[in-house]
UniProtKB/TrEMBL annotation:
One of its GO terms (biological process) is response to toxic substance. Residues 22-70 form the DUF1648 domain. This is DUF1648 domain-containing protein. It comes from Paenibacillus rhizovicinus. Keywords: Membrane, Transmembrane, Transmembrane helix. Residues 191-216 form the DUF5808 domain. The chain crosses the membrane at residues 12-35, 60-84, 105-127, 139-162, 216-236. InterPro entries: DUF1648, DUF5808.
Amino acid sequence: MKDIPNNRRGTLSLHWYWLQGLLIAGSVLMAALLWKDIPPTLTTHYNLHFEPDGFGDKSWGTVFLLNIVQLCLLVTILGTNAVIAQTASAQALDKGASEAKQHKFRFVNSVFLYGLSLLLTAFFSYIQATMLYGWPNEALAAVTVVMMVLVVGGIVGLVVTVRRLGLKGQSAGGDGDGAHWLAGGGLYYNPKDPAVFVPKKYGIGWTVNFGRPMGWIVVITLILIPFAIVTLVAVML
């Protein structure tokens, strides 16, 4: 089958994510080049007042921990974006949702995911720089507040955009008025639907089709990622 460009599938091209990759690579390169200037004891945790309350010796684990988190986040969002680009719910189309609205719905979600990924990647790089290079904690507090405001603003903007464009309800759920939705519309199970991700029945965003094996793989992977990071950190520290 002929490949369809991402912009026609309704998602941003994966090429946009090179910026996050460059941010991560730049953070790693700077830490490597300035290794000798990094203090032997590093702050590893801040309390609610943004005062250091956890410390650790300089090691590959403490220095590059946040870069590992960045990479895990980037891979997760890249995977989500790629799957959304390649799948469209058969049930949503059966319900009469126009292809144009499906395209817009996927694109709006893709833009939100990209913005969230870029924001969090830059934020983790800033935290890393504060830990390694002695940047002021007061500035970190201000940056954290700005980041939280931007995230909340992005979520509100996504909701408003979806409602304004009339995209609410572009979810799967035909075939018997939600016969494939379980747990009050919270879970979607339809082995005949080729889509791995489907728009939520209520609200905005996407959920997993538990009727597809790949859906279970996605869920299990997302659950295992935090445990893998914790285990890796424990080994590296």
